[in-house]
Fold:
Amino acid sequence: MNGRTPLRLRAADADDLKVIASALQDALVAVSEMKYLAEQRRFVFAANRFRWEDEARERDEEGNPVYERVLAGVSFEHVAAVRQIGVNRHRRDQVLGLLTIEAGEGSIDLLFSAGVTVRLEAGEVLCHVEDFGEPWPTQRRPAHPMEDAG
Structure:
């Protein structure tokens, strides 16, 4: 991957999940790319994630920083049920921005922009994230008003 190591992470508890949440912050996820595999008790999705860990390695001809995005596969195991709040089921092409992931008592919440929440009912945390494919350049770095105000 252009001399860059693909991200491979595993979360087995709430603290590990915080690391994954930070790596996936601002990932773009199409509703059509989210799948609950009930027989396998697995919830999966593909995400277009911003590569926070390798921010602006290069500059373009004008000196502007060049950032990268990459596709990542995400899976959660031991999922008994999935509840979606705020998802428009008639807009399968809708793309959501992932804000964070939080582990609760018996559940894992995927919190997206526009007030969308996907709640995974899971007795334990087991999540895997793995980059696949080549990263591509972008000049857009996600901005967070609280971060930028300081």
